[in-house]
Amino acid sequence: MLGRMPEPTHAPRGARERARAEIMAELLASARAHLVADGAASLSLRAVARDLGVASSAVYRYVASRDALLTLLIVEAYDAAGSAAEGAARAAEQRGDAPAQRWLEAARAVRAWALAHPHSFELVYGTPVRGYRAPADTVAPALRLWSVLVGVLVAAHADGSLRPVGPVYDPRGLVDPGVYAFAGLGAEDEVPDDVALALTRSMSLFASLVGAITAELFGHLHNVAADADRLFDVTIATASAGIGLHVDLGAGAGLGATADLG
């Protein structure tokens, strides 16, 4: 008579992993709710534990500290913003859009995400949480948006559409050498002047995107913007023109006449 077949060794582990994933999902959902209700600085593991109906000590089996939980939310937010930008830029490229238009589409996607998740946007692009030091885990997710930005500039430089109208200056020593490495350009002293200028000017792309969204989310455009969508496009296009990305504001439905940014 055959004996009972042993249980697969991976089954209990799989069950534990599923249970852990479910608890982590509930934990993060609670943390997001408290982020909205109380703000990042007031995030508390004790409050999250109450939501889950467990003792505070039980939560520590899943996150080591309040800062560790905050890091999970930060990584989640950076990944969401990066994913939105990547998806929009990729779709624009597949349509055959020029690099400048890809950046506008990416910027619109990040804005749409931010308007839908303002507290997550504020967590990663707003006022830093006092006493919190972001670990290395947050770097790669934060760079996803920057990768889209750099990719657009590289594509525009390659196809000859990058035509800067901004000021001429010495770009050397303005950014950390690691930025050149991240952009795949090698050492700073090996990079041509026009490429170094484009790289340093790219900071205005990021600043204009975050600034435009921040101004809108925090109410600074109240009684100022009659058409927030259109004004956002103009803001992005104006900043982009300075570094050489000339956006066609006539592209897309309902955007009116083409702007001459050349």
From TrEMBL:
PROSITE patterns: HTH_TETR_2. It holds the Pfam family TetR_N. One of its GO terms (molecular function) is DNA binding. Residues 21-81 form the HTH tetR-type domain. The keyword Lipid biosynthesis does not apply. Keywords: DNA-binding, Transcription, Transcription regulation. Residues 44-63 bind DNA. Transmembrane segments: none annotated. It comes from the Bacteria. This is HTH tetR-type domain-containing protein. The lineage of its organism: Bacteria, Bacillati, Actinomycetota, Actinomycetes, Micrococcales.
